[in-house]
């Protein structure tokens, strides 16, 4: 007999922009987000019996996000995601779990004449600050914070050698290479009992994000990396030490390759090894290194 073993539904790509206007200073602060809401619970009959009485319309989810953005702070995103997720579990008793993902897009204040402009901004990269809050009925709120799309490159200070060499191996050992990746780094907080507990932790969220980003870029830049795997692990260690409320740290690092171009065919022009200056950036295929480190 067929049965629904797992089901969830929701609204994705909810675009939200909020502006805070400081009447005393005249300065405005803006936040732009993309939100995804997914609900689980006693919703099987909507699939098996066309019973829409258990369906909270996805348009209602969108409107709820807008209303919550008006009525509550949207920063830090951990708090906003927790507020929205908890709302669905508390409002609808047949909904047992609500996942709210928030992607915060970058808007950095412009400087004009050496001074910060009160209401003008620019986007200084594709990097985003991401959060997922999952409110589970009678079990609390799970939160994962993340850095996503932080593109970094170092032109030296990376090696890769002594790996498995067999009849399938073409890659040669290298003592110095270009290292580039698009950083996805996440850290999972100890479960919160309720929204009030998330509110109490508000000062910690920005500090943790700043610490994780600083550790990531400084370790990437300064370490003479023996491998992406080892460098990634050292980053995880440092974040766990810097943020004691975090129980797990994970990274996903695609290895963006830059290949030397052999130009010796042109009048003996040397452009390999120590003489390499011109490279061909590769889009794919690419290495993908992932790891989760817990306490």
Which terms summarize this structure?
eight-stranded antiparallel sheet; 6 helices; two-stranded antiparallel ribbon; 295 residues; 12 strands; 37% strand; alpha+beta
Description:
By secondary structure, this protein is an alpha+beta fold. It has six helices and twelve strands. The strands form three sheets. Strands 1-2-3-6-7-8-9-12 form an eight-stranded antiparallel sheet. The protein has a two-stranded antiparallel sheet with strand order 4-5. Strand 6 (128-136) and strand 7 form a beta hairpin. The two termini are 43 Å apart. The mean pLDDT is 97.
Question: How are the SSEs ordered, and which strands pair?
Answer:
Elements: E1 9-21, E2 28-41, H1 44-48, H2 58-71, H3 77-91, E3 95-105, E4 108-112, E5 115-122, E6 128-136, E7 140-154, E8 179-189, H4 195-200, H5 202-222, H6 228-242, E9 246-255, E10 258-260, E11 279-281, E12 287-294
Antiparallel strand pairs: 1-2, 2-3, 3-6, 4-5, 6-7, 7-8, 8-9, 9-12, 10-11
Helix pairs in contact: 5-6
């Amino acid at each position: 007999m067929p049965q629904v073993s797992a089901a969830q539904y929701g609204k994705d790509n909810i675009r939200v922009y909020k502006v805070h206007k400081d009447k005393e200073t005249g300065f405005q602060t803006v936040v732009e987000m993309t939100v995804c809401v997914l609900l689980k619970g006693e919703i099987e009959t909507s699939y098996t019996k066309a019973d829409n009485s258990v369906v909270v319309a996805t348009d209602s989810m969108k409107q709820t996000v807008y209303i919550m953005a008006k009525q509550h702070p949207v920063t830090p995103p951990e708090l906003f995601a927790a507020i929205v997720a908890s709302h669905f579990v508390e409002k609808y008793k047949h909904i047992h779990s609500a996942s709210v993902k928030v992607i915060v897009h970058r808007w950095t204040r412009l400087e004009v004449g050496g001074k910060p402009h009160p209401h003008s901004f620019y986007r200084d990269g594709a990097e985003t600050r991401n959060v997922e809050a999952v409110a589970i009925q009678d079990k609390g709120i799970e939160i994962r914070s993340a850095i996503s799309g932080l593109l970094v490159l170092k032109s030296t200070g990376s090696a890769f050698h002594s790996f498995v060499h067999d009849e399938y191996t073409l890659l040669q050992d290298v003592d110095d290479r270009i290292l580039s990746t698009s950083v996805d780094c996440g850290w999972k907080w100890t479960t919160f009992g309720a929204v009030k507990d998330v509110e109490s932790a508000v000062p910690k969220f920005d500090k943790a994000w700043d610490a994780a980003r600083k550790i990531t870029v400084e370790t990437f830049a300064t370490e003479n990396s023996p491998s992406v795997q080892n460098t990634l692990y050292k980053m995880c260690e440092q974040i766990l030490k810097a943020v004691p409320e975090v129980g797990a740290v994970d990274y996903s690092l695609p290895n963006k390759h830059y290949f030397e171009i052999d130009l010796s065919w042109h009048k003996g022009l040397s452009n390999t090894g120590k003489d390499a200056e011109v490279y061909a950036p590769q889009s794919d295929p690419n290495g993908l290194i992932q790891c989760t480190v817990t306490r």
